[in-house]
Design brief:
Pfam families: Metallophos (PF00149), SbcD_C (PF12320). The chain is of the alpha/beta class. The protein has eleven helices and 19 strands.
């Protein structure tokens, strides 16, 4: 069976104020063409279909168009909700839409109920694990402490239990939206950490033939059977080096996996340039970036006058301007920035406590701070569901 694995469409999202709807529509057209021309048997979409819980009307219309075009091809599609989606909204009408071959899996309680498809070699069970916000699903999975690893492990227990009831030789595919250990994050993913832990081990998914992951925006291989497709478009300059693509997966009769990357159309290349303003305007080596979307970091010791306008004369698609004047290591601004680099919200809060009190928080106080941050995340998740 030939699968096309994609995720993280983020329909409705802009790129530094640039409307991406046209590029997203071009991607949908490319997806449909790939399905038809490469004789794909099933499409899997591993979450973050939309960029937010209540998407703009134009994004909903594009999603509707995508569903109609896929249904017209007669190729089944299995789709889960991600942490940016409203599971309830995305899942509206799932029963009716399923009759057209578009299978929406947005309910955590249905993790162990697969979509059954078949080819000449027998059945393939597709298990959809939507994004599992631990605070919201811990009761469903009867876990003592809410955490990503605990709820995903419980969901996978249901998958294995169902798979054990199937005919021997039934192959299996799991769709999941999660941060798996070994994956490389970018700036455009929303933080999903709970208890200070964001990632889960890949071993959670042992026992299935292929795991189609969503959430991280870079296409990457965790193991030969566990992969991220990545987002089809770049949504931050941290993705400048990404090759945007989908995975074409051939699932053999024995459950073996062969994969091929299918590149996605690029609306405009990205480039990060750095240096003093006059050097950036004069450097002939930068001519290759003149048609790219640009993030420019200026290192001038004094802020130049009207830098965006001057940069835009040479680089008309400059979208982001960062000031990082080169200073001595003793400069207090430099040391402060270094202290913050790579630190999460809880660590910054702990640093603040140490700065004010003269000593950092003890273990009990660290737990209180972590619980507070987790509670804020849980409240945000509940509000997203209620919207």
């Amino acid at each position: 069976m030939r699968l096309l694995h994609t995720s993280d469409w983020h329909l409705g999202r802009a790129f530094h104020r640039v409307n991406m709807l046209g590029a997203q529509a071009e991607f949908i057209g490319h997806l449909v063409t790939t399905v038809r021309e490469r004789e794909v048997d099933a499409v899997v979409v591993s979450g973050d279909v939309y960029d937010r819980a209540v998407p703009p009307l134009a994004a909903v219309e594009l999603f509707d168009d995508a569903l109609h075009r896929l249904a017209e091809l007669g190729v089944p599609t299995v789709m889960i909700s991600g942490n940016h989606d409203s599971a309830r909204r995305l899942g509206v009408g799932a029963g009716l839409i399923g009759r057209a071959g578009i299978h929406l899996r947005t309910d955590a309680s249905a993790c162990g109920t697969p979509v059954m498809l078949a080819d000449a070699h027998g059945d393939v069970a597709f298990y959809g694990l939507p994004y599992l916000e631990p605070a919201l699903v811990k009761d469903e999975f009867a876990v003592e402490k809410a955490g990503h690893e605990a709820v995903l492990a419980a969901a996978m227990e249901r998958v294995r239990a169902d798979l054990a009831t199937r005919d021997r030789g039934t192959r299996s595919v799991v769709l999941a939206h999660a941060f798996v250990t070994g994956g490389e994050a970018s700036d455009s993913e929303r933080d999903i950490s709970v208890g200070g832990v964001a990632s889960v081990p890949a071993g959670i998914f042992d026992g299935v033939d292929y795991v189609a992951l969503g959430h991280l925006h870079g296409s990457q291989v965790i193991t030969e059977r566990v992969r991220y497709s990545g987002s089809p478009l770049a949504y931050s300059f941290s993705e400048t080096g990404h090759r945007k693509s989908m995975w074409l997966v051939d699932l053999g009769a024995d459950g073996s996996v062969e994969t091929e990357r299918v590149d996605c159309p690029v609306p405009r290349p990205l480039a990060r340039i750095r240096g003093e303003l006059e050097d950036l305007l004069a450097d002939p080596e930068l001519a290759r970036h003149e048609d790219a979307w640009i993030e420019a970091t200026l290192t001038d010791s004094l802020r130049p006058s009207d830098p965006m306008a001057r940069l835009s004369e040479r680089f008309p698609h400059t979208l982001s301007l960062v000031f990082a004047p080169e200073r001595s290591p003793e400069d207090p601004d430099v040391s402060y920035a270094r202290r913050l680099a790579g630190r999460n919200d809880r660590q910054i809060a702990e640093d603040f406590v140490a700065h004010v009190r003269g000593s950092g928080p003890d273990e009990r106080e660290q737990a209180v701070l972590q619980d507070a941050f987790d509670a804020v995340r849980a409240d945000d998740a509940v509000r997203e569901v209620a919207r």
